Amino acid sequence: MKRPVLTAFAALMLTATASQAQQAADPSGVWLRDDGNARVRIAPCGGNICATNLWIGDTSKGEEAGDRLVMSLKPKSPDTLAGTAYDAKRDRTYSITVQVSENALLTRGCILGGVLCKNVHWQPAK
Predict the structure, then answer these.
(1) CATH number at residue 88
(2) Each residue of 42-86: pLDDT tens digit?
(3) Strand, coil or helix: what is 34?
(4) Which of 3, 11, 31, 42 is least enclosed by beta carbons within 10 angstroms?
C-alpha cells in the first residue's frame, strides 16, 4: 500500500518541478537601459543566457557594441533568476539577480562578495 502512495507522491513532485521550470522568468528580448545609453539583446547561448550590447551611446567607460555578458542563471522565484555573470572583456565574474516583469527588467550585479552592488532598470525596446 505504501508503494503506490510513494509513487504517486513522486509523480506529483516531478510534475510540480516541471511546472515551476516552465514558469521560470524569461528575460529574452531587446532591452533599453534606463539611462538611455545601452540597447542590449538577451538570448540563450549554449546552456547559458547572453546579454550582448547592440548599441552604446557613450563609450567613455569602455563599453562597446558587441560586448557580451554570459550569465549562468537559475530560477530563484517565478519572476527572478539568480546566479553569476562573466564579463570576458574585464575578466570579471559578478553575482547577479534578474527580476523580470512584462514591461521591465531589473538587474542587480555585485562584486566583492556582495559588498559593492549596482541596480540597473531596463525597458523593452520598441
Answers:
(1) 2.40.128
(2) 999 999 999 999 999 999 989 999 999 999 999 999 999 999 999
(3) coil
(4) 3
Quick one: cell of 120?
A: 540597473
Cell of 46: 549554449
Q: What is the 3-state secondary structure (H, E, C) of 36-89?
A: CCEEEEEEEECCEEEEEEEEECCHHHCCCCCCEEEEEEEEEECCEEEEEEEECC
Rounded Cα distance between 2 and 12, Å, is 15
SS3 of residue 106 by DSSP: strand
Number of domains making up the chain = 1
pTM score, two decimals?
A: 0.78
- How many angstroms separate the CA atoms of 20 and 14, rounded? 10
